[in-house]
Amino acid sequence: MTHQQLNELIDMLTPAMDVQREQVLRTRRDHERLVAPGTGAKPKLTSADRVLATVLHLRKLATMALLGQLFNTTAMTVSRAAKDVRPLLEAHGIHIPASTARFRTPTDIARYLDLDENKIKPTC
User: Which of 3, 82, 92, 94 has the most CB atoms within 10 Å of its CB?
Assistant: First the structure.
């Protein structure tokens, strides 16, 4: 997936994620909003982070614990994001194929991204 494709995916899913978040909050409150949108606690992950984390999870590139480290949050937060975004991807007919690369630690990623031109890198 190119950077442009990822940005288009984020732009496509962000409005649906905003609606989804409002529905969850409305259910939790058991009534409509009393204050303007944008007040209160901010989400731990931005919409772009939620989509990216879900894509990485569906590609099976990293464990939830590693994704949590990469996004400076917990594995549970990443798991919830993936659980929320996955149905939106399916609703838009978007299928994310699994990758052959697997990372368990930040060192694994650094080793994979090592810019030493003499090393042979596996392809995804």
Answer: 82
Q: What is the pLDDT of residues 29-86, one digit of tens each?
A: 787 777 777 677 788 899 999 999 999 999 998 999 999 999 999 999 999 999 999 9
β-bridge partners, 103: 62
- For the chain, the domain total comes to 1
Q: Does the residue 124 lie in any domain?
A: no
Domain range holding 49? 3-112
- Which three-class secondary structure state does DSSP give residue 100? coil
